[in-house]
Design a protein that fits this description.
Helix 5 (about 205-215) packs across helix 9 (about 260-275). This protein is elongated. The relative contact order is 0.11. The chain contains 13 helices and 31 strands. The strands form seven sheets. Strands 12, 13, 16, 17, 18, 21, 24, 25, 28 and 29 form a ten-stranded antiparallel β-sheet that branches. Strands 1, 2, 3, 4, 5 and 31 form a six-stranded mixed β-sheet that branches. A five-stranded mixed β-sheet has the order 10-14-6-30-27. It is an alpha+beta fold.
């Protein structure tokens, strides 16, 4: 019996061990909870991953939208995230800490400046709070939805971020006062350019007006200059890092496609006549900003880069002369003027500011400092003033210094798209100082030291036939505009390349008239001051002042024409924007 029982138990055990269906049933029963938990975790992890990707896409879009609306970034971010279904969006302000919670999306929005240069480390390219703003950094934190595994895994927090930058740019220049040439200022320009270029220049009024009305593509000009300098396979910045003579610059300008024949021939003539061998740094003439990274022959989308042919040539000629003094003898054609001598000196703009620049908000261009010394000898005319007193000769020694004028790009905006583009330039005319008197010629061309002035002989006087007296005097005049003038250019202005002008305030009198009216006269006898000849001074002064006043208006015109040729004007600064774009916001790192 006992043996039979053992046999039955053994057979039952073998049957149970041999039945695999029973094993699977047990295993399934034991592993089902674990499998369900793993499935719940997997589903929730996949959901969190998908939600994180969606959040990143939303943050990217919000950053791009904010960069396109740099002055209203928080509203742009809130609207973008809310409109795309992001729940409970809350903006965390500076100094705040808002904890993430279910159903709440916490974002931070930070404006700053982005520099994309490869030489800057990635984590340092975005500088929070640095102006002028051109980028936005957006971060997002939220608790994702969990469907099955909320009790199995810790509460996760999704964190995403994005930085977007948009770089509006404009092409602008300062100067370009010369708008046309007539027969009276053509000789002045010929003498001036001859002195600057070192050759005998004899261009006609038509030649000059052809140059003044011509605009050249700056990029095409650099392309042509690269050919002259034998530079190939380089960028525009590489070309502008080199040097060239004024003759080479004039030749390259003449080779720009589309230039009118009159301007082309005039430039070729000046190039052939130029003997000035000084090579100027091209970066002091033109700064293409980020466009400099383009290879030769490439063109930027949506941004024109044009410049005045005459303005560029004059700016180059001034740079080539540095602070050297140019002495010219002028035939003024002014009635009563026996002769005139003219000296001109140029100082380099501070910080080597270029004449034309492509840049972002904050970019500055400046003119060069200009010094003019004009000595006019005046005929005495009816010189007998009575009592045996005769006026023998007259002189009008004028000294004018115009400090650099400045134009700063302060804003570029496109409120409703490219057609609504608006460029704002803060402009400060150069400070003008004028003196009627003597100065040491050694300090004239030195812009680092202040010139000093003293009394000068205005007229000499004979008593009967004996030269006994000299009338001496001096005067000073200055004008300044400490507050910048805002000039605004819309799309029509930019397309037409309109020149806008900022004026020095409260400037109501001409320079030479002001100087003459403030002239203080005394008399010297044999080089010694006469202190008690009030009657003689009272007799002599009126005809002296009257004669000087008779030439102040034409001398003013002479100065205006001269400064106009140099790209500046007393108490004024001219600005022209030839291209602008608001750019396109893009994600950056």
């Amino acid at each position: 019996m006992l043996l039979c029982a053992h046999l039955k138990i053994g057979r039952l055990a073998r049957l149970m061990l041999g039945d695999r269906r029973a094993n699977f049933t047990v295993m399934t029963a034991l592993s089902a909870p674990v499998a369900l938990a793993l499935a719940a975790v997997a589903i929730d992890e996949a959901s969190i991953y998908t939600e994180r990707r969606e959040a990143q896409a939303m943050v990217d879009l919000a950053a791009i939208t904010a960069a396109s609306n740099i002055n209203n970034v928080q509203t742009a971010v809130l609207t973008t995230l809310t409109d795309n279904g992001m729940p409970g969006v809350v903006v965390q302000g500076s100094g705040q800490t808002i904890p993430a919670a279910v159903g709440k999306t916490v974002v931070t929005v930070t404006r700053g400046r982005y520099a994309g240069a490869s030489s800057v480390n990635v984590d340092q390219r975005f500088q929070a709070g640095v102006t002028p703003y051109n980028a936005v950094h957006v971060t997002l934190r939220k608790i994702p939805n969990r469907y099955f595994a909320s009790s199995l895994i810790p509460t996760p927090i999704i964190g995403t971020e994005a930085t977007a930058s948009m770089t509006p740019q404009a092409t602008f220049s300062v100067g370009s006062r010369l708008l046309s040439v007539n027969t009276s200022n053509s000789p002045i320009l010929n003498a001036l350019l001859g002195g600057l270029l070192g050759g005998n220049i004899s261009l006609s009024v038509m030649d000059y007006n052809g140059l003044i009305s011509a605009d050249v593509s700056v990029l095409s000009f650099v392309d042509a200059l690269a050919v002259q300098l034998n530079l190939t396979g380089v960028t525009y910045s590489d070309v502008l890092a080199s040097k060239a003579t004024v003759g080479q610059i004039a030749t390259a300008m003449a080779n720009v496609p589309g230039l009118g024949n009159t301007a082309k021939v005039a430039l070729q003539t000046m190039a052939s006549k130029s003997t000035n061998t000084v090579k100027i740094p091209l970066s002091h003439l033109i700064d293409l900003g980020p466009l400099g990274r383009l290879g030769l022959g490439q063109r930027p989308a949506g941004l024109g880069v044009d410049a005045s042919a005459m303005g560029m040539l004059m700016a180059a000629a001034e740079l080539a002369n540095g602070s050297k003094q140019i002495d010219l003898g002028l035939s003024t054609g002014i009635p009563g003027v026996l002769s005139s001598t003219l000296a001109i000196a140029f100082g380099e703009p501070p910080q080597s500011s270029p004449w034309l620049k492509v840049g972002e908000v904050g970019t500055i261009v400046r003119t060069a400092q200009t010094g003019i010394k004009l000595v006019v000898k005046i005929g005495a005319g009816n010189s007998n003033v009575g009592g045996g007193i005769t006026l023998v000769s007259f002189s009008l020694p004028l000294h004018v210094e115009v400090a650099y004028a400045e134009a700063k790009l302060t804003d570029i905006s496109c409120p409703t798209g490219p057609s609504s583009i608006k460029v704002t330039i803060a402009t400060r005319p150069g400070i003008v100082e004028g003196h009627l008197g003597d100065s040491s010629s050694a300090g004239f061309a030195d812009f680092t030291n202040k010139e000093t002035f003293s009394n000068t002989e205005i007229a000499s006087v004979k008593l009967l036939i004996i030269p006994v007296l000299s009338v001496v005097g001096s005067a000073a005049f200055d004008m300044a505009n400490n507050t910048p003038t805002t000039l605004t250019f819309n799309k029509a202005d930019i397309d037409a390349k309109t020149i806008r002008t900022a004026y020095t305030q409260n400037f109501t009198q001409s320079l030479t008239t002001s100087l003459v009216s403030d002239l203080s006269l005394t008399a010297n006898l044999l080089g010694l001051p006469l202190l008690n000849l009030n009657t003689l001074i009272a007799t002599v002064s009126p005809p002296v002042v009257a004669l000087l006043n008779s030439v102040t208006a034409p001398v003013d015109t002479l100065l205006t024409n001269l400064l106009g040729a140099l790209g500046v004007r007393l108490g004024e600064a001219d600005v022209r924007v030839t291209g602008a774009t608001c750019g396109r916001a893009v994600l950056v790192q």
